[in-house]
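Appendix B. One record, verbatim.
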Amino acid sequence: MKEKNSEFLNDFLNYLKVEKRYSDNTILAYRNDIEHYISFLEREDFGYFNEASSQVAEWYLASLYDTYTPKSIQRKISSLKTMYNYFLNQKKEIDFSPFFDITLPKVEKRLPKFIYENEIDEFFSSIDTSNELGKRDKLIFNLLYSSGLRVSELTSLRIKDVNINDRVISVHGKGSKDRLVPMSIDTQELFLEYLSLSRPHLLKKSDNLDNDIVFLNFKGTSLTSRGVRDILNRLIEDSSSNLRISPHTFRHSFATHLLNNGMDVRMVQELLGHSNLSTTQIYTKVSKEALIKEYEKAFPKGDKKK
């Protein structure tokens, strides 16, 4: 990468880390998107990041169609728009964004996937809690479901963020947005056992006994988002379940079940930490579709003989 392009990239990534306080995974996604664009500029000899024209932006967009889905293309262009806007606002060698009015491909909106309450119960019942890791695992997915946490929020929880007596968790969400979320009585009981017995047992396996991250892996070090996915896959395989879910499915199910049971959508918005109500409102459609599906399963067919 040419030195000047590298300087632009590093400046922007530092802004995301220091000022926006984005997670490492989010920053890595921005880096990958922008490095792909810069590689295109340098490969095609289109000059530096601050020299690109609207025509160059159109050519870059066209080059993406052969390899990427519309959703991936939208994400890549969004990353570039964000970076150009940053330099425009900072007035740093850039007075024009080539992606300002570019036309993006339409993405078909998919409804969030959720699982039914009986499936949640069956999943929790299948977890073997006869050992310390099993007790940890049950707490992890109970917390993802009953408090609607993102996986990254769960893995970044610190001991000081958890108020077990008041059943409240301080969550540090996207874009430095903090919120308080309640925990269920079941989660409270699981937390008490994990923090008093299971976590100390796991922490002994680590050299860093001062680690205050709540969730630890089998080595006693901080659990990662990838680790949570691996745990879920193992639990599903061990139970011979046909469930096809990700850790984020528990958050989707949390929102859908709350709406199904009558909670106001704005209260659900607060619990999820959504900035925009429209993001939460998609769950109302999921809730309605679930209602129709259950109705069609239960209601007598009209072709029965009278």
